[in-house]
Amino acid sequence: MEEKGEEKPKRAGRIALIVFISLYLFVFALYCVIDLGMSFAHLWTPWRPDYARVDITAILEKTELTDEDYETLQLQTGLTRLGVDGILAAGDEERILDLQEHYFTDYEVTDYMFAPFLCREVIPVNIPLAELEDGDILVSPTAHFSGFRFGHAVMVLGGDTGTIIASEGYGRKSGLFSLAAFTNRPSFVVLRHKDRELAEKVARYAESELLGIDYSLTVGVIEPKNPDTLTRTQCAHIIWYAYNHFGVDLDASGGVVVSPMDLATSPELELVQSYGIEPGQRWR
Q1: Strand partners, 72
Q2: 151 phi, psi to nearest 5 deg
Q3: pLDDT in the model for residue 19
Q4: For 177, phi and psi rounded to 5 degrees?
Q5: For labelling, which of 78, 94, 124, 163 has a CA lying 20 to 30 Å from the CA of 102?
Q6: Which pLDDT band holds residue 34 (cuts at 50, 70, 90)?
Q7: What does the alpha-carbon distance between residue 126 and residue 121 come to, in Å, rounded to a whole number?
């Protein structure tokens, strides 16, 4: 009887050891998979022109541009008709030439890790932008967890000041930031809703009601996607929520979670500018 009594703790010890070893192997395997995903994610590169740079000064001197002129300018700068017209109306042709210089320069891309297995790509310069308007949205694919590229999105609240609203990550509440924290990314797009009056209302609503919101990636899964009062959000969701408040659904996939790619591919938005992404495209 004593031998059987002694066997029970030995058996329990063996089971505990097996459980511990199994858990250790699982965690180790998961770490290896995530680390391998990081290696693959770092193979990502921004798009750069594979065609020749041309002199666009003669086009910029014209009083009226043709469709062919706009097409050439988009291929040379990433600016669509909206982007070109906005800068020309501001009398800043030099900015278009400056943007062309950046567009054809192959900058070194650095992987910046801002949390375990969370990384974003940056370049050593800030890229010039189109004339921005309140409610404009900037989306970039340059953020990933392991091999999953989820990107980042911000919304312009002050087109003349470069002020944006953003939900940046855990431990940080949604707030006002400078565009300079976004334009050093090697790929991004500028998007605009065609109803400018509505976009202005969205920007003012976000500025007055959506600052100081806690961050959460589980919005739409655990927390409701469209609550009456927003208490949790993330970078793409806060923009979707602001526009949805005025009856505009920017979620291209219509899923429970809104992603930056959903915003980028929304048919509700027009492309103003792309950088590091093929002309006319919105995601890479």
Answers
A1: none
A2: 80, -170
A3: 74
A4: -140, 175
A5: 163
A6: low
A7: 13
Would you list the DSSP string of the chain? -HHHHHHHHHHHHHHHHHHHHHHHHHHHHHHHHHHHHHHHHTT-------S-----HHHHT-SS--HHHHHHHHHHHSB-HHHHHHHHHTT-HHHHHHHHHHHT--PPPEEEEEETTEEEEE-SSPPP-PPP-TT-EEEE---EETTEE--EEEEEEETTTTEEEE---TT---EEEEGGGTTTSSSEEEEEES-HHHHHHHHHHHHHHSTTPEE-TTBTTTB-SS-SS--EE-HHHHHHHHHHTTT----SS--SS--HHHHHT-TTEEEEEEESS-TT----
Statement: residue 149 has pLDDT above 90: no
* Tokens read off for 150: 């989820």
For residue 6, what are its two tokens? 């002694």
Distance CA 142, CA 158 (A): 23
Contacts of 191 (CB under 8 A, 6+ apart): 136, 137, 138, 139, 263, 264, 266, 269, 270, 271, 272, 282
Cβ count near 191 (within 10 Å): 26
